[in-house]
Design a protein that fits this description.
single chain; 325 residues; 4-stranded antiparallel beta sheet; 10% strand
Length: 325
């Protein structure tokens, strides 16, 4: 019963923050970017492309929200088997909400939020859109659009979500220059600036709690520190034997890996036990395995050892054991 209550609370909280993220994204796009006629990436950018093209050809612009919703539904149908039912349901929720938000907000902002400050509008709009996308992703949702493609890629590989979005959105922003003859190079450049800001802010939001650090600890009280890190910080330690060349005495070195947000806890443990311990801290690009992130690498046949190689390896091991005896 308690477990069901916790799941309900977590799901409710996720949907709440997905809506908050979408509202932030919608505000950044509708109030800062779209009035400046800056074409951005994602389905919003594709919707802008369709709007300007249909306006020029037929005298009537297809609403951005309509294009966004139609394309999002198509992408979700394609992503169903890859990213799973739960992600699709949350993203369908996000796609519906963001289409409504864009459809409602765009008419309310016919002029830029900050008049005659195009660069400032681009900066603020890009930051808000990035925060909105990142917030939705952190809570297992999506603002839909190219981040559906990004989620499919991230499910199969270690390519970051921000990088995938950058590639797809780069194509969308570039296309406006060829689709609409009266599109200026100035708007395209601002679109690239916005694209860069959105992708990096979103990546920062998504990966903040995945950043990891590695500690190297030298202390005569290494045993107490290792036990405290195991028991209090719930992280593992590796003990390595070495020798201090200045003292010519044997020393023990602790290697500890943890998430960046846990580094303060590790420092407090060390300081409470040995204030004179020698400690180094280094940022690492990623930690994969038990207690950290999963390695999402799909092995090909080229990387799989053949049965003959496995047998040869076993025979070599047996031969080495015999030689040892």
């Amino acid at each position: 019963m308690q477990r069901n209550k916790n799941n309900f609370w977590m799901t409710t909280k996720d949907y709440f923050f997905i809506v908050v993220g979408i509202l932030i994204y919608g505000l950044g796009f509708s109030a800062f970017l779209n009035p400046e006629q800056v074409v951005i990436g994602g389905m919003a950018g594709l919707g802008q492309d369709v709007y300007y093209l249909s306006l020029r050809l037929f005298g009537y612009g297809v609403p951005i929200a309509v294009t966004m919703y139609a394309v999002n539904l198509t992408l979700l149908a394609m992503a169903y088997r890859i990213v799973g039912k739960q992600f699709v349901l949350r993203t369908l929720f996000g796609a519906t909400i963001i289409s409504l938000v864009i459809g409602i907000m765009v008419p309310y902002f016919p002029e830029p939020f900050i008049p005659e400050q195009k660069f400032m509008n681009v900066i603020l709009g890009g930051i808000l859109c990035g925060i909105g996308i990142g917030l939705a992703f952190v809570h297992n949702g999506s603002t839909a659009g190219t981040d559906i493609i990004a989620a499919m890629v991230a499910k199969r590989s270690n390519v970051s979500i921000g990088r995938t979005m950058l590639y797809v959105d780069f194509t969308i922003v570039s296309a406006i220059y060829f689709i609409v003859p009266d599109a200026t190079l100035d708007n395209v450049v601002f679109g690239f600036v916005t694209l860069f800001i959105v992708s990096n802010v979103a990546n920062f939001m998504i990966n903040t709690n995945r950043q990891a650090v590695q500690f190297t600890i030298f202390s005569p009280k290494w045993r107490e520190i290792a036990n405290a890190i195991n028991n209090d910080a719930h992280r593992g330690c590796t003990v390595i034997s070495g020798m201090g060349w200045y003292s010519k005495q044997e020393v023990k070195m602790l290697i500890v890996m943890c998430r960046k947000i846990e580094s303060v806890t590790i420092f407090r443990i060390i300081k409470s036990i040995d204030n004179n311990a020698l400690v180094t801290q280094a940022n690492v690009n990623g930690v994969y395995g038990k207690g950290f992130d999963e390695m999402k690498i799909k092995l090909t046949d080229d990387y799989r050892p053949s049965s003959e190689e496995v047998e040869q390896f076993r025979l070599n091991q047996e031969q080495q054991e015999e030689n040892t005896k």
